[in-house]
Amino acid sequence: MGSIIDYIECVNCKTEAYSDFYYKTGEEYINCNNCGYHYSATIKNRDKNLDELTDKDWNIQECTSPFGAYRLKYNNEIGTTCGSLRNEAEWNKFKKEVQADDQYSQVEIFTLSQLVEGKIVESIIK
Predict the structure, then answer these.
(1) Which of the ends of the chain has fewer CB neighbours closer than 10 A, N or C?
(2) What is d(CA 77, CA 22) in angstroms, rounded to the nearest whole number?
C-alpha cells in the first residue's frame, strides 16, 4: 500500500493539519493536532475490487466541531500519541484514565489543544 503524506490547511482552525492519502485504494485521513479536526474515508468491504466500489462501500467520518486535540508522551518513548476529542465528556474520561494509570508518573507531556475564539489555546496537564 502506498501513501502520500502532505501538510494542508485545517478546514476548522486554519493551522497546519496533515493528510495521509492512500493512492492505491483512495482512502484518506486528515487530522489536525491543533484543534482536533478529523476526517477519514475508508473502505468497508475489502473483498471487492476498487472499480466495483459504490458509495455504500465507504465509511466516511468527520469531526467538524471537535472539543480539542490531545498529546501524550511517556518518558523514554520515541513517539507521541495524538488524538481528537469530540466533546468535553470524552476529554474528561480520557484524562481520568490517563491520570489513574500506574504509568502516569512516567508521563513526560500531556496537553490539550483547543480552538477558542479563533485561536489555538494549549493547556498543559503535565
Answers:
(1) N
(2) 27
Q: What contacts 14, CB < 8 A, 6 or more positions away?
A: none
3 state DSSP class of 103: helix
Q: What is the DSSP string of 1-45?
A: --EEEEEEE-TTTSSEEEEEEETTTTEEEEE-TTT--EEEEEES-
Which residues are CB-contacts of 113 (< 8 A; sequence separation ≥ 6)? 33, 34, 35, 36, 68, 69, 70, 71, 120, 121, 122, 123
Distance between CA atoms of residues 5 and 50, nearest Å:
21
Q: Is the pTM for the entire model greater than 0.70?
A: yes
Structural contact between residues 1 and 10, judged by C-beta atoms closer than 8 angstroms: no
Q: Please answer whether residues 115 and 34 qualify as being in contact, where contact means their C-beta atoms are separated by less than 8 angstroms.
A: yes
